[in-house]
């Protein structure tokens, strides 16, 4: 593989994919941590409100405790439904795999030391990593086509 094609591959596929996976890992990590901390804080407030009902028989405390309980339930459901932790782990793994392969290429270690065309091998490994990531993605935006899918017939 010549230098121009390799540089074009890096600019067209590698760097954008690495940036995309890093950004998605970061945003899912941030969302997971925010929701988790909000859930913890509101859970503690709910417990304190419910505990204070023993001493104060105020309707406002009961209604506030009910409201915070509903909020905690909604937040916990959002954490589980939107799978921010799993997405964070997946995108982080993908970016780490891409970075590790680039480091192996740059250091000319393992198979790269014996490979005659290390750029072509690097390209094939990156495409393999990206393909595996697409296949193993638990939460794809668009579902992959099934092998027995039929085309829609025009009306």
What's the layout of helices and strands?
Blueprint (H helix, E strand, L loop, with lengths): L2 H50 L6 H24 L1 H24 L10 H19 L19
Sum this structure up briefly.
The protein has 155 residues and is mainly alpha-helical. Helix content is 75%, strand content 0%.
Question: What can you tell me about this protein's structure?
Answer:
With 155 residues, the chain is mainly alpha-helical. The chain has one domain. 75% of the residues lie in helices and 0% in strands. The chain is rod-shaped, with a radius of gyration of 25 Å. The model has no long low-confidence stretch (mean pLDDT 88).
- How many domains? The number is 1
Distance between the first and last residues' Cα:
48 Å
Average pLDDT figure: 88
Topology as a string of helices (H) and strands (E): HHHH
Strand content: under 5%
Q: Using DSSP, what is the number of strands?
A: 0
Provide key terms for this protein.
single chain; 155 residues; 0% strand; mainly alpha
